[in-house]
Structure formats: structure tokens, C-alpha cells
Amino acid sequence: MKPILALNAFDMKAAAAGGALEELLRRRAEVFGSASVLFYERPLQFVRGQGCWLYDADGVAYLDAYNNVPAVGHCHSRVVEAAANQLGQLNTHSRYLDRLIIDFAQELLATVPRGLSNITFTCTGSEANDLALRLAAHFTGGTGVIVTESAYHGNTARVTEVSPSSFAQWRPPPYVRTVPAPDGRLTSSAALAAGFANQVTAAIADLERHGHRFCALLIDSIFSSDGVFSDPPGFLRDAVNVVHRAKGVLIADEVQSGFARTGASFWGFQRHGITPDIITMGKPMGNGYPIAALVTRPEILDTLCAKVGYFNTFAGSAVAAAVGRAVLQVIAEEGLMENARRVGEYLKRSLLELAARHPGIGDVRGAGLYLGVELVQPADGSPAPERTAAVINGLRARQVLIGAAGRFGTVLKIRPPLCFSVEHADRLIASLDEVLGEVP
């Protein structure tokens, strides 16, 4: 399995950036050391962003088909104004009464299923998932966690242990079990649902057999790092029933699939008709500002707070609330969920037409504006990581930004800002068509 930080990564030892970037690279390497991670064979320096575009130091515009963090578009004026105005008025922690954070919390809770009525703010999705695991352990009395084989859920110590894609050579700790991502190409809808539920059942039994009481199934409902497996809607219900019969909880990591990303619903789990016990969210909810959150039922939160409590100085600040409210307002007022559905369907159809002409495309899948294009060797359909890297860098040369996902890093990850238009999609398709015609 290819670790997540190795996907589309710049190799300082094997390549050079060229020109004016050399000095920046040298300085970065000196101060960041081995933690310096950059994209592309030739790194990019961006100095400005607007909507679905990023601009480099020479003023060249790059179409952003990759970055889901600026969910409503880079530097959206409403979000910028909300942050600046509130920062100029007040920004302190949430242990003082503030109407703004309460208003934001109620507006956010109005988007989730009834009963999930308590929210805790954090700064990052990693913190939210870390807290979710703590809540699940206190509530169930167990420690055993199940995740998918190539999942990524964050970078705290605890969350890294349930993120198999973070390791080049990974062995799960004793309390973690992995199950394959549910690949809808391999079987019928009913068999897929039953098969995934059976995998979870077997993992629970194995945890219990080794003395680890089952605690939680932690999933990203679009299985993004596994290679984007979103369909058919509803296949997760059987596995959720298994989790609840075993007295465990379902943690829905919505950092990737939430905030209208899939086009069919505000949250990714809603496509499957399920209700999680804990929802975690992050990145896109602040459009680049560091805000994240966890939503759960009162009885789950109470089990932790009765023993330990939770407080986060920077989480739930007035600026975070102002930014978060602005993002929610923009999604609603600009119809971005409908845009994700409409443009996503158009883009998916266009990619399928492209696949009919290029045998190197093995599959097109996903929902809304989160799509995956799996690249294979045209001769035998085997994984093609080198071809994938060449395609990604070929798109970069045409000023189109895209990422990689999947166990072998062979899935093109398309997750642009939600304001992505049909015209943007046409630019992406034309560029990808050109690159696929050139890459052997």
C-alpha cells in the first residue's frame, strides 16, 4: 500500500523545481527537514486564489479540481468579510457567553438527524476524530475499533493508529481491525451490503476473541482514501445494524463527504439512510479557517464529561463561529448542493465518455463533486501507479490541479470547490483527454 504522503509527492533528491523556486525549496528543506511534503514533480508556489482558481507568482491561473477545503471557493468575499469583521471586534475562547457561537451551533445542528443534539467544537478534523474515539470508548467500555484498509482519519497519535494509509509498512495495533472498502463493481447491491456487514461481523468477533471489547466502526461514507467508493446508496445499513447489535457506535467521519459535497444530501451518510452515533467534521466548514466539530447524543457526551470533560481554547471562538455561519449561508444562498449534484452528474457522464475512448481508465465512480477515476494498464487492467503519476503531472503542466487516492495511488481524486461549473468541468475533461492520449 502506498502511504498517503507519498501520493503525488515531490522528491527533493530526484528532481529540481527550477528557476526562482530553487531558493525557496532549499530554505524550506532546511527548516522543515524530513517533514517537508510538497506536491508534483515540480512544486508550485501560489500567491492568490479566487473561486476555483489558484494563481502562481507569475500570474498563471490553475484550475483547482482538487481542494475541498475552500468548500465555497477560494477567498469567498462573504467568508473573508465575516472573518475580518469579527477579528476586528472580538476573538476569545468559548468559556464566555457569546450569542454568535450558540447561533452557529443551532444552525449546524439543524442539518443533522434529530437526537444528535450536542455539539463540541474543535480546531481540526483530527481533533474531532480523536475526541470521537474517546467518547466511544467511555460510552461502550470497549477499545476495539474497525476501519477500512486504506482509511485516513487524521494525525493525532490515537487517530494515526486508525489511519492505515499513513504508513508505508503498517501493522495495526492490537485493538484495531481493518476491513476491505466496499467495492460496488464486484457484486450486486444486496451482496455488497451483506458482504460488508459480514466483514464487520468477523472483525468484531476477532477483536472479542483477542480480548478487545468492540467499541466503534469509524468510516468515511465516501471511502475517499480507499479510492472513492460511494455506491450504491444504502449499502451501509446492514453493517450499521451489526455495529448496534454488538453494542458499538458508528462514527461518521464527514470531513470529506459532508457540507453538500455529494450533491444528494448535506451529509454523506444521509445518502445511505443511516444515523450515526457520532459525526465528525472539519476542513470545509471553515473554507480554510481552522474550525471543526463533533456532534453526538447527550448520553454519549455525558459519559466523558462526567469523568474528564473537554475544553479547547481556540475551538468555538467568535471568529470561527462567524466564518462557519458564513459558509453555511453561502452554501444555501448560492445553491451549492444543487450545483454539486448537477455539475457532478455532468462531469461523471463526461468522464464515462472519456473512458469509452481511453482503455487506461478502469472505472469512474463517486457522487456529486467527489469523483474517482481509476487508471489501469491498458493491456491487462492491472494497477498503474506510474501512469497515474504521469497523468497528474501532465495535468499540472496544463494548469489543472488534481490529486490521487486508493491503495496503490491509482485513482485520480476530483474534489473541487463546490462552485465548480460546467465550464470548469469541460476544461478538466479536455485537459485529461489530451494527457491520456500522450501517456503510454
Spell out the key features of this protein.
Aspartate Aminotransferase, domain 2; 12 helices; 4-stranded mixed sheet; 440 residues; single chain; 7-stranded mixed sheet; globular; alpha/beta; 2 domains; 16% strand; Aspartate Aminotransferase, domain 1; 15 strands
Structure, explained:
This protein has 440 residues and is α/β, with parallel strands linked by helices. The protein folds into 2 domains: 4-72 and 335-438, Aspartate Aminotransferase, domain 1 (Alpha-Beta Complex); 77-333, Type I PLP-dependent aspartate aminotransferase-like (Major domain) (Aspartate Aminotransferase, domain 2, 3-Layer(aba) Sandwich), CATH 3.40.640.10. Helices cover 36% and strands 16% of the residues. It has 12 helices and 15 strands. A 7-stranded mixed β-sheet has the order 4-10-9-8-7-5-6, with helices on both faces. Strand 14 (403-405) and strand 15 (411-414) form a beta hairpin. The chain is globular. The chain starts with 20 loop residues before the first helix and ends with a helix. 50% of the residues are buried.
Write the layout of secondary structure elements.
Elements: H1 21-32, E1 46-50, E2 53-56, E3 61-64, H2 77-87, H3 99-109, E4 118-122, H4 125-140, E5 144-148, H5 157-160, E6 176-179, H6 189-209, E7 214-219, H7 237-245, E8 249-253, E9 278-281, E10 292-296, H8 298-305, H9 318-333, H10 336-357, E11 361-367, E12 370-375, H11 385-397, E13 400-401, E14 403-405, E15 411-414, H12 422-438
